[in-house]
Amino acid sequence: MDINNLSQTDINELIQAEKNPKNVMEYQDIVNQVTQQLIHSSETFRCTVIDYRRKINYDFRIHTTPTESHFSVGLMFIDNGYHLLRLDFGSDLRHVNDRGTDHEYTVLGSHAHVNSPAGKYIHKNVIPISDFKEFATLKRISDVVTKYIDYTHIKTS
Predict the structure, then answer these.
(1) Is-contact 152 102, C-beta < 8 A?
(2) Sign of the torsion angle spanned by Cα atoms 106, 45, 52, 134
(3) How many whole angstroms separate alpha carbon 43 and alpha carbon 32?
(4) Sign of the torsion formed by the C-alpha atoms of 115, 120, 123 and 128
(5) 117: closest CA among 126, 128, 105, 108?
(6) 3-state class of 116 per DSSP?
């Protein structure tokens, strides 16, 4: 599979693929810190997650901010820096889709990046979280992390 040229079918297959953390203790520590609602600053918790069958390494990131309702959770391909799936939560987030075209529009609030570059100032399109029934009603980081791990088939054993 060429991760630089993924079709929607490829993306769906990768989201469904079983993945395993490279360091289970580090992975469990990240999950515990977030799901136990520890007070934390604007840090990014991370570990490497591996799809052994396809030989793909991901960077699993949970990014928190000083604002409790703003956070992101994502899996990024280490080899090319694209997010397989990143969820950004925050009611006041704004993201412009189809920038610079006649079809330009703004997505307000929480949204998802699917197979998109990581750069903040790179033009890319997002999908409203409301389009993902699994995440549409979630607001707390612990709930999102738990559901995200299940949704992307990250396995600890």
Answers:
(1) no
(2) negative
(3) 15
(4) positive
(5) 126
(6) strand
pLDDT computed for residue 38 by the predictor:
54
Query: Under 8 Å CB-to-CB from 67, ≥6 apart: which residues?
Result: 90
Residue-by-residue DSSP string for 7-71: -HHHHHHHHHS-BEESSHHHHHHHHHHHHTT----S-EEEEEEEETTTTEEEEEEEEE-SSTT-E
Residue (of 81, 84, 66, 73) closest to 30 by Cα position: 73
Please write the tens of the pLDDT for every residue from 90-111.
Answer: 989 999 888 889 999 999 999 9
First to last CA, the chain: 25
Which residues share a beta bridge with 85? 75, 114
Ranges under pLDDT 50 in the chain: none
